[in-house]
Design goal:
This protein is of the alpha/beta class. About 45% of the residues lie in helices and about 15% in strands.
Amino acid sequence: MTSDSPRVTLITGSSRGIGSVLALKLAAKGEHVVVNYKKNAELAEDVVRQVREAGGGGIAVQADIEEPDDIDALFEAIRTEYGRLDAFVANAAAAAFKPVSGLKLHHLDRSWAMNVRSFVLGAQRAVDLMDENGGRIVAVTSYGSLRAFPTYASLGAAKAGVEAYVKFMAAEFGPRNITVNAVNGGLIDTDSLEYFYERVPGMAPMNSVIEKVPLGHPGTADDMASAVEFLLGSGAGYITGQTITVDGGLTVVAPPFWADTSGELRAAVYDD
């Protein structure tokens, strides 16, 4: 990459939420963004439109990152369009919110494929597209990797696995001037937060958790995107193998607790 060449960044799951906010931040710097989406082409194309209006460039590429063939096709599209990649942000995630005793084989398989396997396969392919100037890899993780929250075992364990891979990748890719880091989010005000606290039966009320956050409020997609943007930038060139936690102090106090749940969900742990 020459000094006058716009940087090219792939952000998985970037048709909405944190990924789309990050895409616009990078676009404001004149960079190119590959907007990956699974289903909603219209939403992804709208993000690309906004990216271009903000001064950047980009393309939308459909790929289900649970599928290795789709991952291959995603990176081939990048190779065809740009011939290289400067940064890879693993942002897409999914899992079942159930007690460990309720996890079925397909829940375990999907959590691994969606969150861990896709990150490893994506990083392998991203590194192959990075030139002699190196690059950046950032994984978006979440608070369940640090604390045992109700129904979060499947996703939390997967994100802990991703954070472990971050360390190994940092050691292996460092000689190629590629940094690898993670941004771990707490209560972030996105669609996922609403789903977790309002659609998981018996979950502790969201406000009962928010009031325990030291900063007193949930974070925003912009808070997360800003942390990722920092790790992608030149100011973070000597930071690698690290996880930055963006949670307002949530994991210092660590709610919600199983004791805060109710109904059948509480009964999964407590024999009241």
